[in-house]
Amino acid sequence: MMLSLLPDIHYSARSVFKDWRFAAMVMLTLSVCIGVNTALFTIINSVLLQPLPVPDADAIVLMANRYPKAGVNDSNNSAAGDYYDRMRDVTALQDQAMFSSVAYTMNDNAAPERVSGMAATPSLFRLLRVAPALGRAFTDNEGEIGSAQKVMLSYGLWQKLYAGDASALGHDLRLNGRPFTIVGVMPRGFLFFDPEVRYWVPLAFAPEQKQAHHNNNWYSVGRIKPGATLAQVQSQVDALNAANLERFPKFKEVLINAGFHTQVLPLKDLLVKEVRGTLYLLWGGAAFVLLIGAVNIANLALARTSLRMKEFATRLALGASHAQIARQLIVENVMIAFAGGLAGLGLGIASIKALGIIGLDRFPRATEVHAGATVILFALIVAVLAGICIALAPLAGIFRVSLSTALRESSRTGTGGRRSRMARQTLVVAQIGFAFVLLAGAGLLLASFRQLLNVDPGFRTAGVLTASISAPGSSYRNDADLRSLMNRSLQEIRRIPGVKAAGATTGIPFKSNYNDSVIIAESHTMKPGESYISPLQLIATPGYMEAMGIALVKGRYFEERDEERSPRVVIVDETLAHRFWPDRDPIGQRMYQPNNIDFLKTDEHTQWLKVVGVVRTSRLVDLTGGGNFAGAYYYPYAQSPQRSYSFAISTGTDTSTIARALRTSIARVDGSLALFDVKTITERRDLSLASRRTSMSLALAFGCLALFLSAVGIYSVLSYLLGQRRREIGIRLAIGSSPAGIFQLFLREGLLLIASGLILGIAGSIALRTAIKNQIYGVQPLDPRVIASVALVLGVVATIACLRPAQQATKVDPVVVLNEQ
Length: 821
What we know:
Blueprint: H1 2-18, H2 20-49, E1 60-66, H3 80-89, E2 93-106, E3 113-120, H4 123-128, E4 134-135, E5 150-153, H5 155-162, E6 172-175, E7 178-185, E8 199-202, H6 207-210, E9 219-224, H7 230-247, H8 249-257, E10 261-266, H9 267-272, H10 276-307, H11 309-317, H12 322-352, H13 355-358, H14 373-398, H15 403-410, H16 418-453, E11 464-470, H17 479-494, E12 499-505, E13 515-516, E14 520-521, E15 536-540, H18 544-548, E16 552-555, E17 569-573, H19 574-580, E18 590-592, E19 608-615, E20 632-636, E21 644-651, H20 655-669, E22 676-680, H21 681-688, H22 690-724, H23 726-734, H24 739-767, H25 769-773, H26 784-809, H27 814-818
Parallel strand pairs: 3-8, 5-7, 15-20, 17-19
Antiparallel strand pairs: 1-9, 1-10, 2-3, 2-9, 4-7, 5-8, 6-7, 11-21, 11-22, 12-21, 13-15, 14-18, 16-19, 17-20, 18-19
């Protein structure tokens, strides 16, 4: 087969070399279009299509407790009691484990350093089927209270701390001031769930935790048994939940009203659910760019073929068959496309290295993105298919060609083939339609992004520096120690020149460290079927809300008098205040957190909270208002001390200067404390919008490329029509038509193509409105301003592309044209 194609390849190579300008244009266009698609496919293949980098990863599932009617965030966690129940009753799972992210201060270096890790039951490593490269994994008895002071290191941390010395096994590593014995080192490149993890410690549960349900703090995962299915696991988990509702009847009504259920889903789906739609949308945009590029090339191929019709007719007259000519045409186009595909493959792979520039390095599994054999095969297949598709456009005319027809249509004085003109015009209309869809999508993403930037989050975003601390239990053993640390830290911070206000909280905006908990107003009456709500629970010091610029609606902020011995107080946001007291003044009202399953029952142990202030509702989780819809409430830090918190510092000077002074101030308070996650609120906001910014930037780039290709397309087709209709133009001018009339004739034809393309594009945007609906905020999928703006921009650019051919048509000399042979 290959030998029979050698003559065709030889002939095609000569033809390509002869018309090198055409070949260069095709290869350049395809290299850009295939490069874009290769880069997006590389990301999608690595992030969405490939399994997690552990053996048989597709069999690993997550079990997540959900309470949709209670206002809880989209929880993916479970309780320790669930884990032990499922170990007993969910037989469709071969192995089960629990884990959670942790971050400890490592004190073995000269300066304290905050390092991310994972607390996991010893069963996790059996479930993952990954053994340490050095030493051993945790034993089951090391997952018990009192035996959990062990640690396994990542390969990178082992190299950093011990330079790869095997004698590190058995040494103690101090984390949060406590010694952990090193028992193992994981293999180089091992990743699971969180690429930032540098060590693993055993997760141990106290006896009372093993019986507790619905205090969801851990991820619960399992490996499906061979022969079992995801549906079987879901069915067994549902049956277990139903049995537990009967075992604990006091929970039953509360949980049913909250919509409690457990969702079983592949673990990979959890990791990528936030970016799946975005990535597929971007790939769709890249595919549209490829389509537009292919249409442009098809137009060039049609023009080139029309110029070669005399050549094809002559070869037919000399004995060549239609099939032979068609085969050579396909081989020729595939050769050019294949070369463009190779260039596009290199461009796509090179662009992967620039992930950080466009923000894709912040996507889940970004560290796993690489171009393997699948990507190379994809790029080459796309190139070959593009070559075949490009050849199909002129191919139909080859089988209809005859010597007399070719001589007539190739004559420089002829009017040109109508079929060829119609084909090229149709391609231009399709090109403009595709470009409109791309530009409309990019415009919607841009408008959505601008809406988000203009959202008032309910707090100040400029001039606020934040930084986090976690006080180790080895140094700060009780609440009094924590209060003392906080007071001394804030005193030092407030002495820094340029600091206007400072405070601390457990829930800094745009940081995923929020707790939610049920809270009830004293006078609230539950309606039948109504669910208790679980608003966000934050703890803050005096000065925090002032530093953040959270507006006070009624009452007062926290003050120094709200200390441990004073009556307990609470501040609520407007959302929570409206829910409990829509027609009353919330100030002075009492609230409580239930201390037993009968939520409405109070007794001598109930701790009453007096509402002293109402503040504006803040968009703490993200600017779209996602997260917890039930509102938020705040406790004073002195009445609920915590080990982990973040400072908020309002400043009118350069935040980088304040950041340096902040480190010095904390070091004066306690040199063993690690200050970490130092960012301005603006930086946190921008990070929360990173995926949206990335999708918008790429969509705009695709749209601009599509706009350029469309302008080139309409220019080339009108220039082609000018060449084909020179005799017609000469006749018109000879019988009295004016140059202005010729100009209007060509411009009108171009505008008709543009209008047809815009109508096609609007229809395409309507058809695809559902695809983009979930990716935008504050605008409708068919926003009239965006659609009108895109139509205007595309129309203006395309019209400009029409002007040059129309102007050239007015310069045709009828004497010269009518005497051409």
